[in-house]
Amino acid sequence: MTKSFPDGFRWGVSTSSYQIEGGAKDDGRGASIWDTYCATPGRVANGDDGSVACDHYHRWAEDLDLIKGLGATHYRFSVMWPRVMPEGTGKVNETGIDFYNRLIDGMLERGLDPWLCLYHWDLPQALQDRGGWTNRDIVDWFGDYTELLVSRLGDRVKSWVTFNEPNVVAWVGHEEGRHAPGITDPRAAMRVAHHLNLCHARATRVIKNHYPDVPVGFVLPMHKGYTLPHRREQDAHLIDLFEAKWNGIFLDPVYYGRYPELIIDRMEPHIQDGDLEAIKTKVDFQGLNQYFPSYIQAAEGAAWPFKHAQPPNYFRRTEMGWAIDGDCFYQTMKILQDDYGNPPVFITENGGAFTDIPKANGQIDDQDRIAYYTEYLEALLRAKSEGADIRGYMPWSLLDNFEWAYGYEKRFGLVHVDYTTQKRTPKASYDFMRKVISQNALP
Predict the structure, then answer these.
(1) Does the predicted TM-score (pTM) go above 0.90?
(2) Among residues 80, 277, 377, 429, which one has the fewest Cβ atoms lying within 10 Å of its Cβ?
(3) Domain 10-439: which topology?
């Protein structure tokens, strides 16, 4: 198998606003649901929060230089909704808009294509107080927010991402309660999923009304389901239901104008006339996040008849406890190829958290992360060689950052961040990725 990527393959990096920006009290930024979640005792490891994070709000130029130094050509970043609209609707915070104007101009000056993600989980708390994603009015709120960003920033944005991981917003934030806003209501989570799909469609139409030729997509962390070897026969029937929940609820209505048969009974109470016709939209590209395989087993007395299981012991694992499985990555890309018409795909997140121990000189030789990237990039090339339309790759993440409920314990970055001094130190994986990008091939 070739180890070279095709001409024109696009390389980038991804970050998200709440995880890196900090500046929580600066220049009129409003509160987000993650500010509230972090302030709730017991929610986040060590009581950490994103109030400072990587201080990207003040150090953005240095961070863009790191992206340029990597040789990347595009940068997926997200806008923090409460930084530009502190109440979620109404008055615009011009200082917040100015920050993203400077950031985008800085990208263009360095030859980076701005990929703007509208939503990476930091809903204004003011909107949560009005029901947040459970309130159907959010379709209008999100449409107005999109209109603001398109009108102020859209002349320089090269690609738009409506949502990062809407399934995590719905299931982890509103069913499991492990992410903001910390709700544990399975029925509400189904309603949230439908509203997210409606918002994606509304935002797509707003963007296309202004810039019909600019690509628009959304990012989904797709999961390929597996059963435990000793439970294969008993649990095999659960795989389709698991994949319908994690993947199909967000892919099927966009691509085909319908919800999966296995879950339509759960969705019907939330669907109004014309909704599915509205959600079906042209897909310019599909963003795919993938980290690990998902093993499931039967569960009793729960909202769904399955639960996550620990993968077999033969897998190597990241510091998150996630199994490392490049073949699962390959299989996930094949799902898009075989079941969804082989859309143009950009890998918008992929990476691993490992224990990074600086040497005496401050350098970090993270060979375990390099091995992870090598395995997953080989899987990408395998899928590509079999016809999957993979157009680009963005590792997660540029920087060590605030890792949601894990606080600052887990590090995914190509660049080490000393959270006390904010000093940035590129790791060995940064040099590895720079070599891959410069050669457009695996070493």
Answers:
(1) yes
(2) 277
(3) TIM Barrel (3.20.20)
